[in-house]
Amino acid sequence: MKRTITALLLLCLCILLPTGCKETTPGETVNLGQEYQLYIGQTVTFSDTDLKVKFGEVIEDSRCPGDVVCIWAGRVSCLVEVTIDNESSNTVLTELGLSEGYTTTQYEHYILQFRVEPYPQSGTEISDRDYRLLLTVTEAP
At a CB cut-off of 8 Å and minimum separation 6, what does 56 contact? Predict the structure, then answer.
């Protein structure tokens, strides 16, 4: 009986886990216009383009914890390596704290919409392995 209950609980947990975006595996090719989840060190290649994006590191996370009232909302900045036509350059993506939705920036002829998770809570530290860059890339009009 205990095994059945444990199996059902595990099944429910798997079903209820957030699945809003696809997590990439190293070297995976993905489509423009879809949201993908990158962990630090992961690279994603976009199909039918000459574009690759690598999530290098979080270089600043001063966001006000979600359960605290702050004078300044803070920000989170991520270093990403963007490769177009086999030429790579580093750029910083910065998202303001307490912002709703996604931050949008343009890099050459691509629009990058992104969000950094998890959002900080007081009394807990976010380790590098827990950071995720939720990224959607489209071509600029």
Answer: 40, 41, 78, 79, 80, 81, 90
Q: If you search the block for the tokens 């909302």, which residue do you land on?
A: 73
**Better-scored residue on pLDDT, 8 or 61:** 61
Considering only CA atoms, which of 123, 64, 55, 117 is closest in space to residue 92? 55
Those residues with Cβ within 8 angstroms of residue 20's Cβ, 6 or more apart along the chain or in another chain: 35
Q: Is 0.90 surpassed by the pTM of this model?
A: no
| Nearest CA-CA partner of 90 in 39, 128, 52, 50 | 52
Q: Report the length, in residues, of the chain.
A: 141
Q: Which amino acid is at 19?
A: T
Distance, CA of 53 to CA of 110 (rounded, Å): 11
The Cα 101–Cα 40 span in angstroms is 21
> pLDDT (tens digit, 9 = 90+) per residue, 18-32?
434 555 455 578 999
CA dihedral 46, 49, 50, 52 (to 10 degrees): -20
Give the residue among 98, 84, 95 at the shortest CA–CA distance from 131: 95
